[in-house]
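In the design runs reported in the main text, the only information available to the sequence generator was the tokenized backbone. The following block is the verbatim input for one such run; it is reproduced so that readers can re-run the procedure and compare outputs position by position.
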């Protein structure tokens, strides 16, 4: 992969100097003889784009283009060397690189489309099943293994602005309220949408104190009493109820003593079925229809989880240690940010899925990346077509 290949142009967006500073802070290349951290990152990124499923597949792919790899400093393709690197080198190196790249993506990301000028975030988690006999550190149940991927999605550009990986038994709300998980402090006058699994009244009160507006789905057994009508329901927009409430339970009232707003709205799902959703919020100023739209927008994080599971290799792993799994997930998320950055910078009109498919097909071509992104697929095939020489035997 010379610098003018598609892969070379993609990885050129990563700052080698920044990555070296991160590696040096962890002594990641100490005692390294053949494969340093940069080479490890290049190989794992290539494996992610090409969807290679094993260390043997990666080794074969690298060795088949040995001369090209040596041009960017990758001198080793041995699967045992890569396996040792994934196991021994701290995954925090790639985690920090992810956040460095995230800051660049945030500068070019488009604004969200909600009818509010405030930042909007959604937080949720997804379970990644693992075989307990192969990943014994990921015990979830007696005979099952799993890890949880917790994520805060920034609706500006749909960027994952916070990621934390835990064991499958970790309760979702612990990640947002316990300091050891380092959940970020959201800016005042921002909006956070979460599912009912995050109902913790003390945590909601902490959001209220910092000026963060939250929208959360209520629980069916929530004990409350009405404190008056907020506005008259606007049934034409699907709003059924819009009232002020306060908690009746003594301990819940001590944890959250203030007034909340309870909004009930209806909508038609993709199957044509009428659904009724009830949310509670400390937002007392925006229209009920706007709050309903904000909570419906929370589905974007579910779409995001589905996309990364279908298109990135984060469900099957080339290593079995906890560090190797974490490393592969962080590299997968680095690839996602690279795709997003290219899409926004080049104003690529098709989906990010189509962008990834194009890169998988032309990764080792030596044309400009812009040539492929400014044309449709039919023109791309014609662009690549070469005359075939026939010979009689």
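Verbatim output:
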């Amino acid at each position: 992969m010379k610098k003018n290949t598609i892969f070379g142009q993609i990885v050129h967006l990563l700052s080698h100097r920044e990555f070296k500073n991160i590696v040096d802070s962890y002594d990641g290349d100490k005692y390294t003889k053949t494969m340093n951290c940069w080479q490890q990152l290049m190989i794992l990124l290539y494996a992610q784009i090409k969807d290679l499923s094993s260390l043997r597949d990666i080794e074969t792919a690298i060795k088949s283009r040995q001369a090209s790899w040596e041009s960017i400093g990758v001198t080793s393709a041995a699967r045992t060397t890569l396996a040792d690197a994934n196991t021994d080198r701290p995954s925090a190196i790639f985690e920090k690189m992810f956040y460095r790249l995230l800051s660049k993506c945030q500068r070019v990301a488009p604004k969200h489309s909600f009818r509010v000028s405030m930042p909007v975030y959604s937080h949720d988690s997804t379970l990644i099943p693992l075989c307990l006999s192969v990943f014994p550190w990921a015990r979830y149940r007696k005979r099952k293994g799993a890890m949880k991927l917790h994520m805060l999605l920034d609706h500006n550009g749909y960027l994952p602005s916070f990621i934390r990986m835990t064991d499958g038994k970790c309760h979702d709300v612990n990640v947002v309220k316990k300091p050891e998980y380092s959940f970020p402090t959201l800016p005042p006058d921002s909006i956070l949408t979460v599912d009912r699994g995050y109902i913790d009244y003390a945590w909601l009160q902490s959001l209220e104190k910092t000026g963060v507006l939250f929208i959360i789905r209520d629980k069916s057994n929530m004990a409350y009493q009405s404190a008056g009508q907020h506005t008259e329901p606007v049934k034409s927009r699907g709003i059924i109820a819009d009232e002020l409430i306060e908690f009746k339970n003594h301990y819940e009232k001590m944890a959250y003593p203030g007034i909340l707003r309870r909004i009930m709205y209806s909508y038609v799902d993709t199957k044509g079925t009428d659904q009724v959703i009830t949310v509670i919020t400390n937002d007392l100023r925006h229209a009920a229809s706007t709050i309903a739209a904000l909570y419906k927008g929370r589905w974007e994080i579910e779409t995001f989880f589905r996309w990364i599971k279908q298109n990135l290799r984060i469900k099957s792993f080339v290593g079995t240690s906890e560090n190797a799994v974490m490393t592969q997930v962080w590299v997968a998320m680095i690839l996602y940010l690279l795709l997003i950055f290219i899409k926004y910078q080049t104003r690529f009109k098709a989906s990010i899925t189509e962008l990834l498919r194009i890169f998988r097909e032309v990764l080792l071509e030596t044309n400009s990346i812009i040539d492929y992104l400014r044309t449709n697929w039919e023109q791309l095939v014609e662009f690549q077509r070469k005359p075939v020489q026939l010979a009689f035997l």
